[in-house]
């Protein structure tokens, strides 16, 4: 409450500097609030000089103070306070304000001098050009201005590197992040910087360089687990499955341990780099995966790579986590690696089937069926592009589209569950039960009604419709194979004919059709169909198999089971028949 007096201002500003540092050191959140103490200190300086600045913003206030206050004794305290102001602005992402302030501070020291040559980063140049004021003998500082300058340089380089990384300017980002890595920071922050360098190198198409940076991050601080996540992602891109599995296994084990209370190498500093770097890009790059997510990635990777026993173990571990409140462990913002739960169950069923645990697969599928039954409408009308439903507003149309997509997905999950059960019963030798499940699958798919003659579904619904068509194809072939097992060859023939209507030229459906005709003793037709199929262009069969979008992982094993197993034997029989027929004709 005392009036401002010039003789006491240096001491007053030094006390304010120490006080603000202590406040930041006592509470990390203090840096997120406006530094009102700095503003009041500047107003006190102006008051002592017979001026005022109540109506000025903080930037204008600094400009006024540095231009009008020329007392030599006040320069050092004001410069130190200016460095603190810069820290607050860096934490708020106001990089332009920081550059302007240091330009003012340097201009006050050496008017007319420019501190940024062409090709240099302006912000880093003006911070580095700032002359640190000498410490006075009157009152010790809680943190020297020299250390504060180093921290500001590191934070400025790190923040700008993140901005450039997010903008896709990778060479500039790499340069700034390397500058930050050589700066003044704790091991924790250094590991984060190396992680960002690794991500930058990966996006530049330099996986080996990325791995070097990420390994460096883990060497500096093994608790920087996001670096391990990115290592696994790099190996995934490289197709190095063993290395990816090893990285994910280490990550899962590390996530299960309580992290040690690692002391920071710069913990004695009140103002630290980590307090100044707040960026959505950094939060995204350093997102910690939950153990359940990593367990799922392990299961998925093993299933994709054909490591069935390991896949089953991981999927069962994951499913057990559901009973421990998985929904409370995984973020709901779309950043999780987890797919929808029915898909996870279906993938688990696929793994169990391939491991020969058919009853367990049937049980898991039953869970999917029971959970989706109430979500599947009796009839689902899918409009073509020429018959869009009239909606009162774009919002209503978007809502209807979203609802239809969800209904189609639920239908696909339940139909796929029946499909898996059909194949599981077939493997158990229960052909009648298999036919029942395949028929239930096909019955479900009849709920979808495509409207618009000769018109495909809207592009927004095309992925879901393609999955349903693939399930229809696999189920028709599956039921046809079981009809063959039961000796019901005419019904098998019909299913294979329908299969070729769903997917013309499909090699499995075509081969089974030939076999059904052969078993019905319609050998001439069988031979004609076989010749037609054999004469198709070499790439056409593969094109039919791989047409459209990638198949969901939970359907891959079903696709493999539809592959015709007797190609060579059937081809030999038909060739013998054609040879005999040719001899009869010539004679």
TrEMBL record:
Q: Which domain of life is it from?
A: Eukaryota
Which organism encodes this protein? Answer: Chaetops frenatus (Rufous rock-jumper)
One of the protein's GO biological processes: interstrand cross-link repair
PANTHER family on file: FANCONI ANEMIA GROUP G PROTEIN, FANCONI ANEMIA GROUP G PROTEIN FAMILY MEMBER
Ranges for domain Bacterial transcriptional activator:
453-536
Q: One GO CC term of this entry? A: Fanconi anaemia nuclear complex
Is Repeat included in the keywords of this UniProt record? Answer: no
Q: Where are the TPR repeats?
A: 473-506
Enumerate the Pfam families for this protein.
BTAD
Q: What is this protein called?
A: FANCG protein
| UniProt entry keywords in alphabetical sequence | TPR repeat
């Amino acid at each position: 409450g005392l009036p401002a007096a010039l003789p006491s201002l240096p001491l007053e500003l030094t006390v304010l500097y120490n006080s603000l540092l202590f406040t930041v050191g006592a509470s990390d959140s203090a840096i997120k609030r406006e530094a009102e103490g700095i503003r009041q200190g500047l107003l006190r300086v102006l008051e002592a000089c017979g001026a005022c600045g109540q109506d000025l913003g903080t930037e204008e206030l600094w400009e006024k103070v540095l231009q009008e206050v020329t007392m030599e004794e006040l320069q050092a305290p004001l410069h130190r306070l200016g460095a603190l102001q810069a820290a607050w602005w860096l934490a708020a992402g106001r990089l332009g304000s920081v550059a302007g302030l240091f330009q003012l501070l340097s201009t006050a020291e050496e008017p007319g001098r420019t501190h940024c040559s062409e090709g240099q980063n302006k912000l880093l140049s003006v911070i580095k050009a700032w002359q640190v004021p000498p410490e006075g003998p009157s009152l010790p500082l809680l943190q020297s201005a020299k250390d504060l300058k180093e921290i500001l340089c590191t934070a400025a380089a790190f923040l700008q590197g993140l901005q450039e990384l997010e903008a896709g300017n990778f060479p500039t980002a790499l340069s700034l992040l390397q500058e930050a890595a050589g700066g003044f920071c704790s091991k924790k922050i250094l590991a984060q910087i190396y992680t960002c360098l690794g991500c930058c190198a990966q996006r530049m198409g330099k996986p080996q360089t990325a791995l070097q940076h990420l390994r460096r991050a883990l060497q500096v601080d093994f608790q920087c687990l996001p670096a391990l996540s990115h290592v696994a992602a790099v190996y995934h891109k490289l197709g190095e499955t063993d290395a990816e599995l090893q990285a994910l296994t280490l990550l899962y084990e590390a996530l299960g341990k309580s992290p040690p209370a690692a002391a920071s190498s710069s913990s004695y500093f009140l103002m630290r780099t980590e307090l100044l770097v707040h960026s959505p890009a950094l939060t995204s790059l350093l997102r910690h995966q939950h153990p359940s997510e990593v367990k799922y990635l392990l299961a998925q990777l093993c299933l994709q790579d054909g490591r069935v026993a390991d896949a089953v173990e991981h999927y069962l571990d994951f499913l057990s986590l559901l009973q421990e409140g998985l929904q409370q462990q995984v973020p709901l913002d779309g950043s999780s690696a987890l797919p929808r739960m029915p898909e996870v169950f279906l993938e688990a069923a696929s793994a169990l089937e391939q491991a020969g645990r058919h009853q367990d697969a049937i049980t898991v599928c039953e869970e999917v069926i029971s959970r989706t039954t109430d979500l599947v409408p009796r009839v689902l009308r899918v409009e073509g592009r020429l018959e869009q439903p009239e909606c009162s507003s774009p919002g209503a149309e978007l809502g209807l589209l979203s609802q239809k997509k969800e209904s189609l997905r639920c239908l696909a999950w339940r139909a796929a569950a029946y499909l898996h059960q059909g194949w599981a019963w077939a493997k158990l030798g229960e052909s009648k039960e298999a036919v029942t499940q395949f028929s239930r699958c096909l019955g479900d798919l009849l709920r979808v009604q495509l409207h618009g003659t000769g018109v495909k579904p809207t592009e927004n619904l095309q992925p879901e419709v393609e999955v349903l068509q693939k399930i229809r194809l696999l189920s028709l072939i599956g039921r046809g194979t079981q009809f063959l097992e039961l000796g019901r060859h005419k019904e098998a023939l019909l299913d294979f004919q329908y299969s070729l209507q769903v997917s013309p030229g499909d090699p499995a459906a075509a081969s089974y059709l030939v076999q059904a005709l052969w078993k019905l003793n319609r050998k001439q037709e069988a031979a004609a169909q076989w010749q037609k199929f054999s004469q198709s262009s070499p790439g056409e069969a593969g094109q039919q198999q791989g047409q459209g979008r990638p198949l969901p992982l939970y359907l891959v094993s079903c696709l493999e089971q539809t592959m015709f197993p007797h190609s060579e034997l059937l081809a030999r029989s038909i060739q013998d028949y054609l040879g005999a027929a040719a001899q009869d004709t010539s004679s």
